[in-house]
Amino acid sequence: MGGTFDPQPFPVYVTTINGAYIQFLFPGANAAGLTYPAQFWPLTLNLGNLTINESIAQGVVDLNNAITSQLNASHNVIDFGFSQSSVVATNEMYALMNLPLASVPIPANFHSCWPVIPPPRTGASLPASRVSTSPSWT
């Protein structure tokens, strides 16, 4: 999933993220981009008129449908998000945690990854990003 202004991740983005982060952490994973609104009205007039909260709420529905579809097909799921899509992923994790226990995905089958860019020290440029990954509900 992309960030605000990036509702449908470009294939080169998906390939780059897969090679730089996903394959390193989960070798053999198949990458696919997930489309969601990624809007922040009025800044994204070219994409539509959803507020950030409306866009995130729709993104949670889209992500949940994608996760459910893959888990029901007995596939493992790794969600990679940054910017607005990391908020979507966080809200989805809370939704999963609130499911009845029998419906909660097995932690080994679903992971989320977010790039973490630590704040710069005074006078320093931004350091290289790192990836934080964990089972979604831990």
From TrEMBL:
This is PE-PPE domain-containing protein. The lineage of its organism: Bacteria, Bacillati, Actinomycetota, Actinomycetes, Mycobacteriales. It holds the Pfam family PE-PPE. InterPro entries: AB_hydrolase_fold, PE-PPE_C. Residues 27-106 form the PE-PPE domain.
